[in-house]
Every structure is written in structure tokens, then in C-alpha cells.
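Example 5.3 — Polyketide synthase
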Amino acid sequence: FFGISPREASVMDPQQRLLLTASWEALERAGIDPATLRGEQAGVFVGSSDQGYGAAAAAAPDRVEGHMLTGGSGAVLSGRIAYTLGFEGPAVTIDTMCSSSLVALHLAVQALRQDECGIALAAGATVMATPRNFVEFSRQRGLAPDGRCKPFAAGADGTGWGEGVGVLMLERLSDARRLGHPVLAVVRGSAVNQDGASNGLTAPNGPSQERVIRAALANARLTPDLVDVVEAHGTGTTLGDPIEAQALLATYGQGRDAQTPLWLGSVKSNIGHLQASSGVAGVIKMVLAMRHGILPKLLHLDEPTSHVDWSSGAVELLTENRDWPETGRPRRAGVSSFGGSGTNAHIVLEQAPASEPETEPDPEDAPETSSVPAALPVFAPGATLPFVFSGRGADGLAAQAARLTAFAGASENAVRPRDLAWSLAATRAAFENRAVALGTDHTDLTRAAVALTSGAGDPALVTGAFDVAPDGVVFVFPGQGAQWVGMGRELWEVSPVFAASMVACGEALAPFVGWSLEDVVRSGGGLVDVDVVQPVSWAVMVSLAAVWRAVGVVPSVVVGHSQGEIAAAVVAGGLSLEDGARVVALRSRAIRAIAGRGGMVSVSLPLAEVEELLAGWVGRIDVAAVNGPGSVVVAGDADALDELVARCEL
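Solution (predicted C-alpha cells):
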């Protein structure tokens, strides 16, 4: 899938493999085709601590020599993502032990704010390739005998390891809104600091934790009482948990109403201590909690630890699931992560703002092709939709079809078919093996997907293998002659995007013509007149381009033949819609005015043979255009052209 040879993949740290997969999924979930970011200033910030895979791979066979250095290097965790996806912004691997991924998130936010990159991936990865951490923490008596984390509990007896990878996709809020990407939450503020010379290299330091919390709140321009919950570091140790709880009581617990305490939880009670990736796991938990309006309870909590003076501030443990009510302001959460290296991080998250009304598209993102609003649906409800599948190889295509079948079945009532069709066409990478199924609902999609998976045929399913063009799509606009009676009529009915563009074209043409664009398209009348057919064809071409753009097919190049050049110029942004309408209307009117003074004939012969043929009509017929190696247009007197046609038909 990623173009990595089996030999190299066999000695790649599993963290590299999982990060590649999760990064791809994070981008697609954000509605971004990863291929569109190649060559962009995109950043990668990965938090991870060495888990000894490189040393374990030392026993690998000789045939993989040369790949072991990059396969086991922590630096390559971020570099591999940037290289594979073609990112050209900063790519950094951070190792501060347990706080690594939250520090990575902080650095990603800083890079976005400083315009070092336009989009960033912040990730954490932990795969324990060796038992080293189990051995070391067992010797320190830091592991729970039953393997369960019991944060802030009286029965806390050590941490319990977990493994996992998490990836967050970040961009500036203004960019996300402009580009139509879903916003799950906002990073309101963040801070990182160090314990310094404290009570031990790996021992938590309460005053330092207080300082990093206050710094994050200051960065967020918030007071502590405006934060509802904190996702704690909460490892379940008898040393660390009381220190962290007292720091939270001294910061968030002061000056707030006892009726609205700070709620405290930790995802480590659910999935264990993910070490370097624990911070990003806490962020994901809080984002989900915000979106669902539920504060998940702490597990394995018999009673609060007696080593904390819980009466010293308004902080309460989440002993049960609680509703997270709307209060007239955004929901907010803090997330803490403290590293054994002494590096601390705290993030303040805020509920995603309500969507703003759609604005006019940015000229750099969409040239002046039409005045179609960005939010307008491509297809009307009930219209026949294209569901696009693609995969690397036939097996990859079948696997994607199987996943879509499961997804459609699980979310039938939640996802509109037209939204699903748009996402498949516009926000997913297009691979070599493809299929398109036509249908109106989830039932049609499921039937086609099952047929694709099983290899059975389906009349609504088209499959094939194609070369993926690295240079993008070319829109080609034809000249007169490509039209037919009824063109655009059905699309006007089923596609709001096409209809809106045609209305805009009709309004732009109105000052220069004496007929209605909609009437001509619906009736088919008048298409024999050059001053009607050319403006109508222009409007249809411009509107078809608007439909393609709306489903994510954006041209890298446009080219037009004859009057198709006018539509191409509008789609490329070289002409405004109004100027394009004026040019095509006045040009076709001029052609009609000179009608009857000659003619044109297309001759299906090479240029040299045509020139030889015209020797008998010197001064009466000339070469007007060379359309191709075997297609030449000649022009001249009508009588002479009739003679030429008769000669050619002999």
C-alpha cells in the first residue's frame, strides 16, 4: 500500500507501520485525500520512547541488512510519515517519556501558529517490542500486580502498561472552515515546562505541575473556573497520583463554586498506561466526551485515596458517568501528561464552535468559474448517485468494498447516501483498481459492494484498472458540433450545483441575447442557430465543470477547441463569468451576421493531400484549420465547396 518492499517492512518498527496507517486514516477522516498534500508544507510531530525494537531486530537475517538502521530508528517515526506522504514541513520525533505525545501536540500547535506549516499531524506511538519496561518497573515495584491502573483510588498499587497509536490532524480554525473540513474540537491553549532540580529525576514535582497548568490557562486566556474537567495523567501510583491531585486542587480547585466542581478522570483506568502515547489517548477521549456530552467515569475506583486532602478545593472524581450539560459557553477540558524525564505538558481543549454561514470561496481555491455556493448539494435527494470504490490491486478493491458494506449497514440512519457518495469521490485517494456503482440509497450501495467482493456481476457496477495520473486531471472543452437536443435537461433537474450554475450563466447571457437559456435547454428549440447553440454549449460546459469541482475533481489543466476555448478560459479563471458570456454571445452573433458568404468543410485527409487536392480551386478554397493528422477544415465559396465535396465523394 505504501510502496515499501517486504524485505524492508520485515524489519520496520511496528510503531512506524501503525503510524503510517493511522496517519492516512486521520487525513481521510478529515476529508483530505493524502495525495493532495504531497509537496505541501505539512508537519509531522510524533511522541515516542524507544521500546528496543532496533536491538531486537539485530538478530534479523542477513538479507535485510541495510534496512535495520532506518527500520528501528526513533527519528524515522516522523520522517517515515513525511517521506511516504511527501510532506515538506517540519518532521520531528519527541521523546520526553510519558509526556511525549502531548509535547508533540504542543509543538504542532506552535508550528501552525508560527506558520511553519499549514497542516500538521500530532501523534503518539507505543508498541512494547521487548519486556524491558516490565522488568525495570517491576524492580521498582511500580507495576500493579493485577495489571490494572487505579487512578486516585485508595487501592492504587501501581500502573499497568498498555500499547497503542493515536494521530491527531491539526490545522488553523480559519483554514478548516474555509476548506470545509470537520472541526471536532479546538486547542485553546497549551504549555510545556520542566521539573528542573527537584526531589528526584523521575519523581513528579507538584509546583512544576501547577506552573504548567497556569501557563496553559494563560495561553488559552481563560480562568480555571471556565474549564469543566481534567483528563489527568493519573497512572495509579501511590507517589504520582497524590502529587498530581494536589496540584489540580491548588489550580483548578480554587475560586470555583462547589456546585460546579472540576471533574477528574483518567483514560488509563480504561486502556492502561500507553506511556509515550498516553497524552494523545487522553485528548481523543476528551474530544469524544465533548461531542457526546458525557463525562466517562473512572474505573477500578474503590474509594478516593486518603493521601489527598480532597476538601482543599472543588475537585471531584468521576465515580459515575455524568452528563456534560450545555451551559451557554463551550465545553472545555484540560489534559495533563507528565514525563519521567521531568518534562510536563498541559493542553486546554474547547468544544468546536458552531458552523458559520458559508462564505464566498477563496479565489485561490476556486477560480471565478461560477457563483455556486460551496454548501449546495451536488445531487438532489433521490437522485442516482455514483459510489466510487478504489484500492491497490483487486484484493484491496474487494477489501474496501467489504468495509463499505459494513459501514453502510452500521450507519444507515446516520449518513445520507449523497454525503457518502461525495466523500468517496472527493475525499479519498484514487488507486489503480476502481469500481463505480450507481444507486440511490444504502441498499444499492450494499448490493454493489457485495457483488464486487464476491466477484459476481451487477448491471449497476463498472470496474476497471487505470494508471494513476500524477499530474492530475485535464478538462477538454469541445467546439460546436458536440451538442444534442436535450443536453443538460435531466442534469438541471437532479443536480442543484448544475442548476445554480446554469441560472448564473443565463443571467450573464441575458444582456446579449433575446432568448431564455432555461427555455432552450428544456425545449431543445433553437439549437440549429449558431447564435443560440454556441452560448448554450458554453453554459453547459461551464456548469459541467462546476459539477466536477463540487465532487472534488479539480483540473490541473484546461484546454478548449474553437468556441470551447471561451469555456476553458472561464473555468481557469482567465475570464469572469460575465466576460465569458459577453464574448461567446457577441462572437456567435458576428458569425451569424456573416453567414451565407461562404462555408466550411471538414476533410478527413492529411494536410499534404488536402493541399494537393485544392490545386483545382486556387483562390476559391483555402485551408482554414488543421484539427489533427487526418482532419483538415477548408473554407471558401459555397459553389466551390460543393464541387470539392462531390470530388471527395467519388
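Remark. The radius of gyration is 32 Å.
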